[in-house]
Amino acid sequence: MSTSFWHPQAMMSTVKNNEIVIDRGEGSYLWTEDGTKLLDATAALWYANIGHGRPEIATAVAKQMQKLEHYQTFDKYATRPTLELCDRIVDLAPFDDGAKVLLGSGGSDAIETAAKLARRYFTATGRPDKRIIISRQQAYHGLHGHGTSLGWLPANREGYGELDPAVLRASATDWHDVEKTIMNTGPELIAAFFCEPVIGTGGVIFPGAEYLAEVRELCRKHDILFVSDEVITGFGRTGKWFASERFDLQPDMMTFAKGVTSGYLPLGGLVVAPHVAEPFFADEGSLSFRHGVTYSGHAAVCAAALANIDVLERENLVQRVASLETVLADALAPLAELDGVIDVRAGVGLLGAVELRDAQLANKVEAHGLGHGVLLRKIVGGNVIQISPPFIITEDEIQLIADTIAAALGE
Ligand code: PMP
Prior knowledge:
Elements: H1 12-15, E1 22-26, E2 29-32, E3 37-40, H2 43-46, H3 55-67, H4 80-92, E4 100-104, H5 107-124, E5 132-136, H6 145-150, E6 167-170, H7 175-185, E7 190-195, H8 209-221, E8 225-229, H9 243-246, E9 253-256, E10 268-272, H10 274-281, H11 299-314, H12 317-332, E11 341-348, E12 351-356, H13 359-371, E13 374-375, E14 377-379, E15 384-387, H14 395-410
Parallel strand pairs: 3-13, 5-6, 5-7, 7-8, 8-9
Antiparallel strand pairs: 1-2, 2-3, 4-10, 9-10, 11-12, 12-15, 14-15
The structure holds 4'-deoxy-4'-aminopyridoxal-5'-phosphate (PMP).
Protein name: Aminotransferase class III-fold pyridoxal phosphate-dependent enzyme
Family: Belongs to the class-III pyridoxal-phosphate-dependent aminotransferase family.
Keywords: Aminotransferase, Pyridoxal phosphate, Transferase
């Protein structure tokens, strides 16, 4: 066993000599190196949406790599899969004609891009004072520089000294608090509002349609850019291609990652509404957005994304999520009656959570799952069990996840 890998986000004292090495995947199942078969109840980190081990993605990537692995896309250069993917995403996303797409290597990259572009847009349009960003209690927006400042899970902010002081926190469920924050600060100083339409890592929190509608309207009224962080919800997880469509958010910018490739290769990006992109696209303009990374629009990665979207479309997997929404909610609902359960959340696509009394109990549930063929995951303070299976999961397998949690709690 390797002793040199430093696991992301891990307490290494508890991981040492305790690693689980995943060796193989097929559909909704994974096999560890010692041969144990596990049902992937979370689609890994909410991304394995079309399931594991699909040969059509491997074939598409190999074909692209044999022709050209990548050529960088700064300035006037591009590769064909990069261009095709951006057009495809704009066709699927709930934006007016003329939206633009910026690409990076994951969700955190997309958040950096969105935070910088929000501020850059207002300097470009003569309002440099608009630079404060509001994000929400329990938010998770990745862990790069801006993402660390925009997220409000305490453990992720500790030990770095002062984070970006131009980020303010507002309630994730009470829109009046958002309004108060805007009015107390002064709308003329606020650039953007960052919003996961369903909070993921912060505990699978559904803010409610009224909250989303009201904050969207507040942003419109005060010329604050509404940034929909769809790193988890994008590409079908809520039963629509994007949660922004489901909740009619008409975002000014929208991040995506995970589901764009179902995790076959690392990719993230930002869809930008035409009016935000406009100053940078004006004929004879002299403005550029000096942002981008070596692998922006990586050719082989974009080929994987195109093949992944083909699978989602060909197999009607987004509609499948919509049809499984009540199946998941009905399967999880009885858990609310069990000892140790604080709350059960479900009802939007294939997103669910079982909040337990404490992290110790959640550890036991996770261990029980591992012993009984179901791979579960704990989020937030370690006391919430995440349920976000691949879109190809069956009704019986959804029931098995719920039964396994129930059996663990019964022990
Ligand atoms: N935003 C949200 C809503 C996320 O859930 C995540 C990842 N879980 C990120 C941003 C960051 O994405 P990545 O880990 O790919 O950098």
